[in-house]
Amino acid sequence: MSESGIKVTDRRMFTPDGELRDDVEAQEERRPEDPTAQSSPADSAPEPASPPQEPRPAQGPVGDEPQPAAFSSAGPESSPSAQSLGPGPPVHFAEIVASLAEPAALFMGDAALPDGQVPEDLDRARHYIDLLDLLAQKTQGRLDAEEQAILEDILYRLKMRYVQKRG
C-alpha cells in the first residue's frame, strides 16, 4: 500500500462514549476571547458547521422556576388577552386558539395544502379538537368574556363539523 500525502484529523468534539475529547478542551483554552486578537494559522482553519440547537427546557418541575416578567400577570400594563415577549407584536389568546383550530379544519378536509392536496385525517382532526377542549378545561374561569366566547365558538363549530364528517 502506498502512502499518499493526505492526513486525516478527527475533529469530532466527543468520543464514542459521549465524553468531551481532551484535545477539544485544550483548543477551547487556547482560543482568544478577544475577536480582534491575532490568531495563528492553525486557529484560522474554518470550523465545521453545526446545526443550530434549540434551547432545552429545564428538567425540574414546572413550578420551580420563576417566570419571566413578560409572562407575569403582575403590573398595570399586563393584560390577560395580550402579552408582549419583547420586540414584535403582542401575543393574543385568540392566536393560540387559531393555531390549534387551523390543523383541525385542515385534517377534516376543509382546506387544501399549497400543492392542492386535501389531507383528510379525522383522527388527527379529533386530536386537535381534544387539545382545544383541554385548553378550555384548563382555562375555565380565567378568561375574559371575549376570550371565552372565541374558544367556545371555535370548539362548537369544530365539533359540529367533526360529527358531520364522521357521519
Word description of this protein:
This protein is mainly alpha-helical. The chain has a domain at 91-167. It contains four helices and two strands; from the N terminus they run αββααα. It has helices at 22-30, 93-107, 122-138, 145-166, and strands at 82-83, 91-92. The chain has a two-stranded antiparallel sheet with strand order 1-2. The model is unreliable at 35-46 and 54-79 (pLDDT under 50).
Q: Tell the overall outline.
A: elongated
Class by helix and strand content? Answer: mainly alpha
Tell me the strand percentage band: under 5%
How are strands sequenced across the largest beta sheet?
Answer: 1-2
Quaternary structure classification = single chain
Order of helices and strands: HEEHHH
Helix content: 25-40%
The total strand number stands at 2
Helices and strands in order:
Elements: H1 22-30, E1 82-83, E2 91-92, H2 93-107, H3 122-138, H4 145-166
Antiparallel strand pairs: 1-2
Entry summary:
The protein has four helices and two strands; from the N terminus they run αββααα. The protein is an all-alpha fold and 167 residues long.
List descriptors.
mainly alpha; 167 residues; elongated; 2 strands; 2% strand; two-stranded antiparallel sheet; single chain; 4 helices
